[in-house]
Description:
The chain has 121 residues and is mainly β. Helix content is 0%, strand content 55%. The chain has strands at residues 4-12, 25-32, 38-45, 52-59, 63-68, 86-104, 111-116, 118-120. Strands 1, 2, 3, 4, 5, 6, 7 and 8 form an eight-stranded antiparallel sheet that branches. A hairpin with a 6-residue loop joins strand 3 and strand 4.
Amino acid sequence: MIGKRTWIIPDGFMQPKSTGNQISHEAVCVLNLTDQLAEIQLTFYFEEREPMERFFSECGSERTHHIRLDKLTDQQGKEVPRDVPYAIKVDSTVPIIVQHSRLDTSQEALALFTTMGFPIE
């Protein structure tokens, strides 16, 4: 078995500003090496507000999926907030691999970073 069912991403922050043609955003990048569909739930945690739950996505068997957080809404249509630090818990019905990426285009010299999530045993 490759992957874990629960992952933590402790540092999230979407810039409220974008310049040029690219939009500042973050993505939860998922790799599913199993022979089953991965049903994924994301929970967002904040310093000064209650968690936001019930964000869902899927990743097909033996596929990758980039969950763009600037395009993600929960079941009530709420969006992931910009300009607010957060952490993310990613839960899956099957073992997956999770990576986090951020594109910051708030300045002309844009920045891109990526890091692996923290897997929970």
